[in-house]
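Troubleshooting: if your tokenizer reports a length mismatch, compare against these two reference records.
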Amino acid sequence: MAEPSYIAKTEQHSIELHLKGDWCIEQQTPDLLEKYFKKSDHCSHLYLINASIGQWDSMLMVFVMQCVFWCKRHAINLDVQQMPPAVGKLLAIATAVVPYQPPSVDSSAGVSTWLGENSIRKFFSELKKFLIFIGSLCNTFVKLFGGKSSARKVDILYFIEQVGPRGLGIITLVSVLVGMILAYLGSVQLRQLGAQIYVANLVSIGMTREMGPLMTGVILAGRTGAAYAAQLGTMQVNEEIDAIKTMAMSTMEFLVLPRMLALVMIMPLLCIYSDILGMIGGAIITTGMDVSWTQYILQTQHSIDLVDFICGIVKSLFFALLIGIAGCQAGLQCGRDSTAVGSATTSAVVRAIVYLVIADAAFNILYDKMGI
């Protein structure tokens, strides 16, 4: 097996490396001859030429990538057209994903100015993408209500199972614990007044109007919203979404609509389920404070009515839409590599939680103004 080597020929503004021998992993990779490059201070091109290359494997690509990095550092153009065709294809794949470069800060403008301008620019860019996605989603729902949607029922049923039955365990645990926490918080003050019976009021109203829909939304944001973003992001990386578009199929109807409908259908039921479990968790604590189960149940019945349940259910419906929007938008706008999928998943969870907090505050203000 011939050892790998090359002959360097320098011209006025270029260098040619004529490669020969067997470039296999068992051999030692030749180093770049820096002396040839130093002789050409004004070198602008580096040519890799297949003089008499025999067998080769990844060792040759390692050498080529060394040349790529060296040329980037010295602003030199690299030409591999005279290398084996497979080398050019592998090089295109290896350099397809641009390494992450942190944003540069204009020192003349100042850090605070740069942060302000960058934040405003990013805000309006994200707002534009959000509005475009909302417009497409509205058109999809119009087609659905008009009976012209191509969404498949089997997809809707699959996502209903994914959102509902598979998420009961974590919702059960969190709801019971939240009810117990509310009971403990209320008992700290109410027991001093001998009014521990009113812990039932605190737990029932807090769960039905606030904690039930909010905690269910947070759980689904971290569980379902992230799953949607990861699923669609992986499809984007694997070019499956491009294939769907090539077949003249709407990605909004085929991919987004079933996920949105599953969330909207299941979220109110999970909210009611969470309300009940939260009250049970509060009862576990309250009955340990000289309050019987019968007293707790009667006090709960008198403290809440149908309006309280409806307020929480209305919140849960809007929360479901926001979680679906955050997850599906992040997935469809994902990049083409694994890092982008991770970023999309993180973005989906963060956006969903921010949307939930803002929407919850808006609903509370609206309910207060309406007197409910």
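Reference record two:
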Amino acid sequence: MSLRESNARYLEPGALLAMVVGVIFLCQPWVAVLHQYSVLITLAGIIAFNVAAHIPPPGSKIDEDDAVVGEGHGHG
């Protein structure tokens, strides 16, 4: 399994889950340890998602028709 495949399968959903769990831990008043580490867990999820978002998805190739060639210089 390549990095792109494992990113799309594990890292992105894991990062989203960490952010949601961190917010839930922040909002619950019963367990003090979870409340203490909630911001750290949320921040780790945000950083992991930022890294995962910059890894291109598997199988994404630039199509020749979609490539920007040069804003029309030399035509005209």
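Descriptive notes for reference record two:
- Helices lie at 3-27, 32-36, 38-53.
- The chain has a mean pLDDT of 86.
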